[in-house]
Amino acid sequence: MTFLTRLDDGSLKEGAAPTFALSQRGRAGLEILGAIQTFSSGTLRPMAAANFEENPQGRMLGEDHASPTPAFSERERIAKARTVCEGDAIYRLERFFQRYVAEENFNRGIPAIEERRAEFLAYDAAMAQGSDETPEAGSLTLAEDLAIPAWFAPIEWHLEPGGWDGYDLYGALFAFGVGPYVFRKGGYAAVGIGDDIVGQRLKTIRQFPKDSYARIYEPGCGGVSTLKAVHSVFPEAELHGADLSPLLLKNGARMAARFGFPVHLKQADCATDTGEADASFDGVITYALHHELPPKANRALFAELFRIMKPGADIVISDPPPFRAVSMFHAVILDWDTLHREEPFFSPVLHESLDAMLEEAGFEAVESYAIGQDQYPWITRARKPESTAVEAQA
Ligand SMILES: C[S@@+](CC[C@H](N)C(=O)[O-])C[C@H]1O[C@@H](n2cnc3c(N)ncnc32)[C@H](O)[C@@H]1O
Predict the structure, then answer these.
(1) Residue of the nearest CA to atom 4 in ligand 1?
(2) Where is the Methyltransferase domain positioned along the sequence (predicted)?
(3) What is the pTM assigned to this prediction?
């Protein structure tokens, strides 16, 4: 994400510089949430983890989790470990704070942005004007009649009221409110305490094995934070992104115009039809996407990405680590998001193997590994074969 706390940032384009800030009350209300989250993840959570390790049942489950021949299934182990955790008051307090902050981000953040509605609208208008001046910089294609998948439409992702498109100023809320004052501290979902979430994107993009790419595609690109990082690592690459959310795409187009990098954005259900030509990209990046799709939709997505990739093209994925890769206690922490932070597919996907899904889709050289603390970011990367079986037979 691109977080900006100084709303009078002097580097903004002429005529587009906001000369306002959040009110004292709005800023302070969000800052305390960041402090609570830091205390919860940085102080309470290690205490709860130690209590789990000291509990004989917790220790037994941890050993079973690490065993190549476990007595319990992964689902059974997590359910039993959750019961151990819930017997610990420190764990319960830590989880209370996590839920409280997740909800209050919006209860406090939306009013803080509303206080500056007129200013943010004027700022957005200036940004839009900027992008019109440089149409060659990119494109935005919305599809009003797009069928939104039934598994996507009703979800208020991460407790966001109305889901991704539920509030017209979510862009401002994330860039100027919740982003800098809460998310930047880390310590939520798979993001560790103190993690640099901007740096994590750059590090992920450096997992592409080649030095240069002509055309890179990102399904589920949201507000283009990851494509912005791609541009800084591969400035020569032509960038394409797609998302289901028109609001995120509009924000992304403004962001790209503001930071002066060209990007082609399209509204699409990438698990069904990206609308892109066969064999047209030599790189695909996905960031924080797969845990938001049901496993079946992920399989369809990989088949579609395989289709649009050139032979020899590379795919690099960053998503939360699978349960098999983390400690028993950490598996309970990740699993919690499914029911308590409106992430319905988090656990279903973390029980699966993206590696296996990629192989099923036809990819080769599949590998996965962690590049940060607590196994996050968890990278999965692969390559489309130079010749596919069908071509080889022809
Ligand atoms: C957690 S966000 C990540 C956004 C972006 N990749 C980033 O790095 O900031 C996940 C995004 O995936 C999008 N998404 C989920 N399912 C999708 C689908 N089937 N087709 C296109 N986009 C999808 C959501 O709308 C959301 O913007």
Answers:
(1) 222
(2) 217-312
(3) 0.92
